Amino acid sequence: MTEIDLTPFGFTPTENRAYRALLELGPSSGYALAKALSIARANAYQALNGLVAKRGAVRTNEEPQRYRAERPDAMLARIVDAESRKLDALERQVAAVGNRPGSPVVPIEGRRGLVNTALRTVARAPEVTLVGPEDLVTALGPAWRRRSAENMPSVVWVVGGGEETAANLPVAVAGLVDPGRINEYFGSGVFVLLASDVAMVARVGNGDVSGYWTTDKTLVGVVRAATAALTVDMV
How many other CB atoms are there within 10 angstroms of residue 115's CB atom? Predict the structure, then answer.
């Protein structure tokens, strides 16, 4: 069965199973779904109605009535939009509360976590400086387009990239960095993002991505100094 997990986004386990089954079976009745999942018909209809309410499925006009799963890419877009609006609201609430005692360092694990965190930072910060491999730089395309449209200052250094990558980015590229130079400074492939009082640093390579987000002034200063030293004679 298709491995899609919607439960982290407000769908019940039965709704998730029903959605995955509809993807496999195509438009199906409640009876057919109940039989496929070996669950009571009432539970199948409850899950289907839940999917319809959450826009994960639609009812067809056929007789007997059947249910069709929403396209997975459309579901993803809808979930991303909904989660982004929730994060926007939370971000405003956090800004209103202000800083409190506690660690200003947050670990980041995995490429998805790094890209998602960087997207929000790049899209909103008044000024950003980024040093990173071309796949991660281009993954931030939506944020770069926003910065370009709003004329927000951006300094981008692409590690191991080519002129084609630089030409296709919505923002100007300050330069291309030799990966060997990165290894001299950091000991491995690296992604560095500086934005006002925030720094993100992650080790990247061989499919492994791990690092941290921080507002610690000392750490931000160290990252800023290392980035300046790395690029000072390349301008």
Answer: 17
Provide the sign of the torsion angle of the four alpha carbons 175, 180, 183, 184, taken in this order. negative
Q: Are 6 and 16 in contact (CB under 8 A)?
A: yes
Token readout for 54 is 């959450």
Dihedral, CA of residue 158, residue 163, residue 166 and residue 168, to nearest 10: -140
Alpha carbons 94 and 88: distance in angstroms, whole number:
10
Exposed/middle/buried for residue 140 (C-beta within 10 Å: 0-12, 13-18, 19+): buried
Residue with tokens 């993100």: 200
CATH topology of domain 7-70: Arc Repressor Mutant, subunit A (1.10.10)
Whole-model pTM above 0.90?
Answer: no
Q: What is the pLDDT of residues 188-227, one digit of tens each?
A: 889 999 998 899 999 987 778 899 999 898 999 999 998 8
Say if CB 7 and CB 39 are below 8 A apart: no
Which residues make Cβ contacts (< 8 Å) with residue 106, sequence separation at least 6? 212, 213, 214
Q: Classify 106-234 by CATH class.
A: alpha beta
Is residue 125 within 8 A of residue 151, CB to CB? The reply is: no
DSSP helix/strand/coil, 215: coil
Question: Read out DSSP for 51-81?
Answer: HHHTTSEEE-SSSS--EEEPPHHHHHHHHHH
